[in-house]
Design a protein that fits this description.
This protein is α+β, with helices and mostly antiparallel strands and 196 residues long. β3 (131-143) and β4 (146-159) form a beta hairpin. The chain is elongated. The longest helix is centred in the first third of the chain and has 47 residues, at 38-84. It has a six-stranded mixed beta sheet. It has helices at residues 2-17, 21-33, 38-84, 88-93, 112-124; strands at residues 95-102, 109-110, 131-143, 146-159, 162-176, 182-191. The chain is built from five helices and six strands, in the order ααααββαββββ. It has two domains: 2-60, no CATH class; 64-191, Nuclear Transport Factor 2, Chain: A (Roll), CATH 3.10.450.50.
Length: 196
């Protein structure tokens, strides 16, 4: 009985550490309980199905990541539109309740309420003007309910009849909400001075 208990514990630990082994272990269990001529057939089926399983799972994961990227890209477009309309409430609504904003050359802004206050002051500033922005993603990774993206951006704004070009980089961590939508969980950005 002690040996049987040990095997059960080892299987349980393996399943927690390596979810992809679940299917394989179930197959192996059925092989151990089979007998006679059925054993070879079951082994062959187990091998074939295991390879199919391992081939399909990464493809499904990649498709899911692509779907998430489309969703957060649309949210980013909404953020830019809200900023250009100077709609502080709409901007704030795109942030998670426990979000952290890290603006360039400023202290971190922690929590949705503080972020809302930050944007209300920002859009009220007469120096804040509409802009166009092109985002070039250079990495995107999904872990559970968090999607992390890094990107370069190029933008143009007009202030005092003068056109200003700017370039920079940002990092955004999106968090999936209970309703299935994605909101900004962590956001930091900085401009990169033009080379002279």
């Amino acid at each position: 009985m002690a040996g049987h208990s040990s095997i059960t514990v080892e299987k349980s630990v393996a399943l927690r550490r390596h979810p992809y082994l679940t299917f394989e272990l179930l197959c192996c269990t059925s092989i151990q309980t089979s007998s006679g001529g059925d054993r070879l057939i079951r082994v062959r089926k187990c091998v074939v199905l295991t390879f199919l399983f391992l081939a399909v799972v990464p493809v499904l994961a990649k498709d899911n990541e692509a779907t998430i990227k489309v969703a957060v890209t649309e949210r980013y477009r909404q953020w830019i539109a809200a900023e250009n309309k100077k709609d502080a409430e709409a901007i704030t609504d795109l942030y998670d309740e426990n979000a952290v904003l890290m603006p360039k050359q400023e202290e971190p802004v922690i929590g949705k309420a503080a972020i809302g206050e930050y944007y209300r002051k920002l859009v009220a500033d007469p120096h804040f003007v509409p802009f166009t922005l092109t985002l070039q993603s250079n990495s995107f990774h999904v872990v559970g309910d968090i999607a992390i993206e890094t990107a370069d951006f190029d933008g143009v704004l007009t202030r005092n009849d003068k056109q200003i070009h700017f370039h920079g980089k940002n990092l955004i961590a999106w968090k999936k909400q209970k309703d299935g939508s994605w909101k900004i969980f962590r956001y930091m950005f900085d401009e990169i001075p033009s080379k002279k």
